[in-house]
Design a protein that fits this description.
Elements (H helix, E strand, L loop, with lengths): L1 H8 L5 H8 L8 H13 L3 E6 L7 H18 L6 E5 L10 H17 L4 E3 L7 H14 L4 E6 L5 H7 L11 E5 L14 H17 L3 E5 L3 H13 L8 E5 L4 H9 L4 E7 L3 H11 L4 H9 L2
Parallel strand pairs: 1-2, 1-8, 2-3, 3-4, 4-5, 5-6, 6-7, 7-8
Helix pairs in contact: 2-11, 2-12, 4-5, 5-6, 8-9
Bound molecules: flavin-adenine dinucleotide.
Amino acid sequence: MINKLISQILPHMPEKLIWQFSKEYIAGKTTEQAFEASRELNRNNTLVTLDILGEFIENMDQAKDNRDQYIDLINTMEATDVKGNYSIKPTMFGLLLDKQTCSDYMRDIVATAAEYDNFVRIDMENSPTVDDTIEIFRRIKAEFPKNVGLVLQAYLKRTRSDIEAMLDLKSDEADLNFRLCKGIYVESPAIAYKKYEEINAHYLEDLEFMFQSGIYPGIATHDKPLIEGALKLIQKYNIPKDRYEFQMLYGVTPKQRQSLADAGHKVRVYVPFGEHWFGYSTRRLKENPAMVTHIVKALFAK
Ligand code: FAD
């Protein structure tokens, strides 16, 4: 009900108003602002993964521009003291328009990060993109085994078999590094679990399978029961602290994140920034209607 209402109101809300609430979840519009936010996180014993906002582009000029922006970001960041890596979204490089060029552009970004011995995570988008994203991941991983990872979504019924099918990519020299999240897109019940309990149960099953298989997981969640479940698995399998990390979104549950970092777990924050903040913000708003209260507050704040 509230979701429907939000979808109806969103297109009519002024951008300025949406920015008022978005700025809590977005590190800024410029690279320098993203570095500032990252330094603050680093000071609190937290790593970052930087994400330039933008997705589902309309032409391949935008794709090339996005590639160039990421390459600039990497070259600039590697010359600073910021500690972190990079996250990219395939549709930002034209996955739905020209798969081969998209794959080449993503490869160029990973190649740039590899020059600095750093790492790029390929985010997972909605279900029609999953097969192509895995295919591109495989291609890039074959060339840069240590410098690329992927995201998997626990709400998709296919995820366990996707993990199993990718085990052939694991080797002694290079980890398989998967971020596990619940999944944020609206998917049909034919292919996705929809209930909170079902998604959580599969999340922990997938995570356990990753530990059993020697995969390095990025445990991406703010959900307390899942964090507790993950900690139990870490204990059960006696997983060393350098064989997993927790990941959370910028601006979300900072206290929870800090208590994990203070307890000595590796924690990484996903830091989105850039001019194209609008799509990211409205998607999060639809996902988490509780955030509407922020907008209402912003309406009355001066
Ligand atoms: P939920 O049950 O949704 O949330 C648990 C609690 O966390 C909520 O009650 C609330 O208190 C808090 N919370 C969660 N989200 C928010 C929010 N946005 N604002 C304020 N409070 C919040 N999804 C993809 O589909 N593909 C990706 O590549 C991807 N990458 C991600 C990377 C990271 C580092 C993280 C943390 C998430 C990513 N996601 C991605 C999103 C993810 O799939 C979930 O939609 C999102 O994290 C919310 O799920 P949750 O596990 O936190 O649990």
